[in-house]
Amino acid sequence: MQWACVLLPQLAMDGVLRRLEASTDAAIALVEGPVQRRVLHAVTPAARALGLRPGLSLAAAQALSTRFKAIELDLADVERWRALLAAWAYRFSSQVSTDLPHALSLEVGHSLRLFGPWPRLEARMREELRELGFRHRIVAAPNPHAARVLANVHDGYAYDHHTVGNALGQLPLERAGLPREVAFALSRMGVRKLRQVFALPRDALTRRFPPAVLDHLDALRGGLVAPLRCYVPPDHFEGRIEFECEVESSQALLFPLRRLSQDLATFLAGRDGGVQRYTLVLEHERCEDSEVQVGLLTPQRDAAMLFELGRGRLEQARLPAPVRGFRLVARELPPFVPAARDLFETRAQQDVPWPQLRERLRARLGDEAVHGIGHAPEHRPERVAMAGKPMPEARPRPGWLLPHVVPLRDHAMRVLAGPERIESGWWDGGDVRRDYYVVETSMGQRAWAFCPAGEPVAMQGPSYFMLHGWFA
Q1: Cβ(151)–Cβ(145) under 8 Å?
Q2: Second label for 382, Cα 20 to 30 Å away, from 98, 188, 239, 414?
Q3: With bands split at pLDDT 50, 70 and 90, how would you rate the model's confidence at 407?
Q4: How many C-beta neighbours within 10 Å does residue 455 have?
């Protein structure tokens, strides 16, 4: 087996930056701890340039500089980011785990047949993580525990059974995943590298340290340990962004809508599903939350389309009060079936695919403003086409029906099929009695024409036919 570890060293900060549409150039510090003892949990490079460091007290940081923004660390948000990334990784492997700290572990040995060799899969994972806005390091190894500790010091390496042992032996103790007190005690004994720990007698380690230390060392070398818990994708999606101040314009909601639409598309791609209905929940302080329903005719999972549909509905919504929080909730997640495409692209690049255009029109004009063309239970051709669901038709019908019949003047046409008699409408004053034929003109066109019922075609001149439609 081959396991990949995606280390997320700045998960909490990356989540804040993507929520605020900010970059690492902004001086931001995440703050945690009780009110009496506020400390910095993480800082951006710009804040680090001001002298700020994780673990520094907030009072000391403010004494060093006031040109940074302090944001409260929300552990619930961090877990949501981990769940989102687990859903993203699920598209690459059915065995994904979040048990190891600050990382995702996924078995990729069986995925290489689908995604290609490891360098190609690794490049794809890195590209998608960059698009999502999460910094990362990726290492592959024969077992997840070895991959996790190797990701502490390496990035972009893939180890096999022959090379992983030497790579583990080179790790410094403080990066080997051992408890801090255990690493300190071993360093006082003159042990600096992990290979020196592997060389120590097991009995001595058992007497000096807790059993968890030996279990960890065995896990690094692929020994029998408790299996990791695998991620199971939930049956619904819910994303939330809280604003620092009240938002009064629907235009200001477009950025969180775009971010949550992208997260929803990532979640759907991971579980290989689509969404047919989702809800935009606008949270207010002075009144109840307002909801904007977004429905689709068919399941979709394209981020751009989901954003466009939500944008159309959101721009039509009336905000009863300023918005303090924004949620996207999707509970109807049917299977997704990709639309059939031509082998060769025939449309211009600026054209919009029909499903996207249809959904965009519904979002802008309303559900009742867009209809399809179907058949009504009516025999008279001029009254068959109407808005509704199509009905099965046993006999051939032209794709283009003329609004008014005209004489068909062609002396070289020939009859291909017919007659088909249509007699109907006596009850409403629109009585018709016609014999319809499928004819081919001298130019090779197929037409649908008729003459009065009962008239023999052979005795009539060709100009006697009345043209009613053309076949494609």
Answers
A1: no
A2: 414
A3: confident
A4: 13
**Residue 419 φ then ψ, to 5°:** -85, 155
Q: Where in the chain is the domain with CATH 3.30.1490.100?
A: 238-332
Beta carbons of 84 and 237 less than 8 angstroms apart: no
Q: Kindly indicate the confidence band of residue 9, based on its pLDDT and cuts at 50, 70 and 90.
A: very high
- CA–CA dist 115, 18 (Å, integer): 28
- Which residues 6+ apart lie within 8 Å of 387 measured at CB? 371, 372, 373, 374
User: How far apart, in Å, are the Cα atoms of 43 and each of 6, 73, 151, 404?
Assistant: 21, 11, 21, 74
Q: Which of 293-297, 437-441, 445-449 has the lowest mean pLDDT?
A: 293-297
What string of DSSP letters covers 277-297? Answer: EEEEEEE-SSSPPEEEEEEEE
CA distance 241 to 326: 5
Q: At what angle do helices 303-316 and 254-271 cross, to 10 degrees?
A: 140
Environment class of residue 93 by beta-carbon count within 10 Å: exposed (0-12), middle (13-18) or buried (19+)?
A: buried
How far is Cα 62 from Cα 74, in angstroms, rounded to an integer?
Answer: 21
DSSP 8-class letter at 162: T
How far CA 6 is from CA of 103, 129, 150, 174, 208, in Å, comes to 5, 10, 11, 20, 33
**Tokens found for residue 54:** 């994780």
Question: How many Cβ atoms are within 10 Å of 171's Cβ, its own excluded?
Answer: 22
What DSSP string describes 175-194?
GTT--HHHHHHHHHTT--BH
Instruction: Name the 3-class secondary structure at 113.
Output: helix
448, 435 in Cβ contact below 8 A?
Answer: no
What fold is seen in the domain 238-332?
A: Dna Ligase; domain 1 (3.30.1490)
User: Would strands 275-283 and 3-7 be described as parallel, antiparallel, or unpaired?
Assistant: unpaired
Taking residue 278's Cβ as centre, other Cβ atoms within 10 Å add up to 25
The values of phi and psi at residue 451, to 5°, are -140, 165
- The Cα 179–Cα 113 span in angstroms is 38
> E strands of 343-465, at which residues?
373-375, 385-387, 400-407, 414-424, 432-440, 446-452
User: CB–CB of 409/423 below 8 Å?
Assistant: no
Residue 125 has pLDDT above 80, yes or no: yes
pLDDT over threshold 90, residue 57: yes
Judge if the upstream peptide bond of residue 419 is cis by omega within 30 degrees of 0: yes
| Cα 142 to Cα 162: distance, rounded to the nearest angstrom | 10
How high is the mean pLDDT of the chain? 84
Which tens digits make up the pLDDT trace of 349-376?
Answer: 555 566 667 666 776 666 666 666 555 5
